[in-house]
Amino acid sequence: MQQLSSDALTFLKSVISYYVALNVPKLGKDYIDSLLLKKFRTNDLARLKPNELVDLLNFLLTRSKELFGETVAVADLEKSVRGVVNVTGVNQAYVEFLSILPVGIMENEKITTLARADLEEMVRERTAELEDAKEDLQKKIAERTWQLETERNKLKLVLGNTDDGIFALDKDDKIITFNKIMEEMTGFLESEVINKDVDDFVKIFDKENKPILCRTYCSTFRSIGHGAPGYKAENLILSGNNRQYNIRIVSSAVEETKADVSCIVTIHDITKQKELETMKFDFVSIAAHELRTPLTAIRGYLSILIDELQESEKLTTEQKSYLQKTYLSSNQLYALVENLLSVSRIERGNVRLTYETVEWAALVKETVDNFTDFAKSHNISLTFVPINSSTRVDIDKVMMGEVLSNLLDNAIKYTFSGGSIVVFLEVSDKFVTTHVKDSGQGIPRESLPHLFTKFYRVEGVQEGAHGTGLGLYISKEIVNMHGGEIWVDSIQGKGSTFNFSIPKTHGR
Ligand code: ADP
C-alpha cells in the first residue's frame, strides 16, 4: 500500500465513520460492533494502523455486499465519500484517498481527479523548478552586480589615487569617466560632466593659444581602431578653475566592443616642472650674461698682451706659452658662455630669426675659407666643391653661419692630423643640402641616437678636443627653425658626414 499522509488517513477514518453510520440503521449498532470486534480487536479507529484502516474499509464493503447486494453496498460507500468531501472540499487528502479506494468504486472520479492531480503535481513541480531557477538567477545577478560594483570601486580607487588627470570618452566624445585630478584642474565635478561633450569642459590650447579639441587628441586616431599609436603632445595649456596648467597629454584608443569607452586620455600637470625649467634657464641666462662682459675684457687684454710680448725678451718661452694657454682657455670659456646663452634662448622660445635671401654656396665658401688656417694648423686639408646651380635660400645668415661653423669646427677637432675634410652641396626641388665629410675618428653606432641632444659628448674618443656637447644640439634647433633637417652618417674609425638641408627660396 502506498504511504498515506496523515490528512489522507483522517479522510479515510471519516469515510469509515460515515459508512458505519450509514449502515447502523440497517444493521443495528451491536451487530456492527460485533462484526468489527470479530475482525479487529478494537473499533477505536484512532488506534488502527493505516493498513488496518484500509482492510477495515474493504471488510465493511464486503460485508455490506453480502448483506445488501453489490449496488447498495457500492452506492453507500460512494455516498460516504461524497459526504466527507462535501465537508473537507476537494483537497490533496481526497486525491490520495481516491487512489486507495477499492476497485469499481468512483472509477470516473478517480480517473479525472487523479489525472488532474497528476497534472497539478506536474505544474507544481515545474513551478517549483522555475522558482528555483529564478532564485538561482537572482542570486547570480546579485553576485555579478556585486562583482561589477567591486570592480568599478577598484577602478575608481585607482583613478582617484593617481597624480594624473584621467578621463574617458565614448564614441560620441561624451565623457564617461572623470577622475579627481580632472575635477581639480577643470573645476567641474564628475557628476556635472558625465555624458556631456568633452570640449565644453576640458579646454586645451597650444603654444599659439589655438584650441586643441578632442577631434585632435582622440577622434583622429580612433577611426584607425585599437592598436593605433594614439596621441602624445607636450607644452600644451589646460585652462580651468581660474588657472592655466602646463600639461602633457597622452591618449589612446580602446576597442569599442569591450565597453562604451573608446578613448582614454591622461593629462600630466607639468606646471611645476616648467617653472623650475624657466628658473633654471633664467639663472643660466643671467650667469652667462654676467660672465660675458668680463670675459670679453680678459680675452681682449690677453690678445693685446700676446701681440705685444710676442717678440719681447722680457718673458721666457715658457711664460709666453702660459699666456697662449690662458688665452685659449678664455676662448673656450667664451664659447661655452655663448652656447649657454643660445641654449637658454632656444629653450625659452626667445629666438627671433631675421630672414634674408642668400646665395648659400657663396656663404659656405666664405665660411670654409675662414677655417682654412685652422685646418692647416691641424695638418688637415679642407676643400669646398663649388656648384653650378642656384642655391638661393631664405635664412637668418648669422644663425645658419653658426651651424656651418660648428660642423667645420667639429670636423677639424675630431679628425687626425693628415686627414681631409670636404664640403659639398646638393640641390633638389625644394632643398639645398650641405654635406661636411671628414676622414676623422667617426662615431660609435650606439652614440648616434644621442648626438643631437644637450650636453652629449662621445665618451673617451676626443682626447684633447675641448667642447661643451651643446654645438650639435644648437645646430639642430637652428636647422629645424628654418624648416630643415640635420643628420649624420658615420662609421667609427673611418669618418663622419654631417648633413643638413634647408628649404630653397619660395617660388624657385
Ligand atoms: P662638442 O662641443 O663636444 O664638440 P657637439 O655637440 O658639437 O659638442 O658634439 C657632440 C659630440 O659629438 C662631440 O663631443 C663628439 O664626441 C661628437 N662629434 C661631433 N662631430 C664629430 C665629428 N665630425 N667626428 C666625430 N665625432 C664628432
Word description of this protein:
With 508 residues, the chain is an alpha+beta fold. It is built from 14 helices and 14 strands. The strands form 3 sheets. A 7-stranded antiparallel beta sheet has the order 2-1-7-6-5-3-4, sandwiched between helices. Strands 9-11-12-14-13 form a 5-stranded mixed beta sheet. The protein has a two-stranded antiparallel sheet with strand order 8-10. Helix 1 packs parallel to helix 3 (50-68) and helix 3 (50-68) packs across helix 4 (70-88). The longest helix is centred in the N-terminal third of the chain and has 54 residues, at 107-160. Adenosine-5'-diphosphate (ADP) binds next to helix 13 and helix 14.
Write a brief caption for the model.
Helices cover 53% and strands 17% of the residues. With 508 residues, it is an alpha+beta fold.
Could you name the key traits of this structure?
508 residues; rod-shaped; binds adenosine-5'-diphosphate
Strand order of the largest sheet: 2-1-7-6-5-3-4
Structural class: alpha+beta
Approximate shape: rod-shaped
**Percent helix:** 40-55%
Any ligands, ions or cofactors bound here, and which? adenosine-5'-diphosphate
Low-confidence stretches: none
**Biggest sheet details:** 7 strands, antiparallel
Mean pLDDT rating = 87
Helix tally equals 14
Spell out the helices and strands N to C. Answer: HHHHHHEEHHEEHEEEHHEHEEHEEHEE
Per DSSP E runs of 2 or more residues, the count of β-strands stands at 14
Distance between the termini: 115 Å
DSSP strand content = 15-25%
Radius of gyration: 53 Å
